[in-house]
Amino acid sequence: GKFNSDLGASEAGKCLDCAKGRYNSFSGSHSCQPCPPRSYCNATQMTRATECPMGAASLKKESEECSVCVAGRYQSESGSAACELCPAGTYSATAGSPSNATCSACPEGKFTSQPGASACSACPKGSFQDAVGQTECKECSEEYDDETLTSNDAGDGCVLKPDLQSFSLVTTIY
Fold it and tell me: Which partner from 20, 62, 136, 158 sits 20 to 30 angstroms from 148, CA to CA?
């Protein structure tokens, strides 16, 4: 965790601390090493780099800390350079996730076409989605009324034109 840049120096008191983001694991060294990607050095005098924990990553050298995976991403291995994306059709609102188990399927009436989503989008007017984990919505067919179509949060966004709606009369015979 210390170094001395003076060649031939033998006094321990003349050694300097390695700065944050750097480490030294050898005595008698003339310089400190930068913490490599996938790790961090968050204190002075470090003798080794610390791997990024699960749920975080670091791509750059000399990191003083690892970046927590943002919502829509996860990292299930320690010592990683980047976070993984939740697949399209899923989302995660959780930051720092150590597992893809937080990637949840979009519910009925919602979708996400891009990987790494932190939320799903409601199907737009004129469409619906009756399945979970989808990357797009289905269009309402022509017999549906453009004036009465709604977004499909509940899975019922298509409304029949009034002239196509049928009513059944139930007659009870005693």
Answer: 136
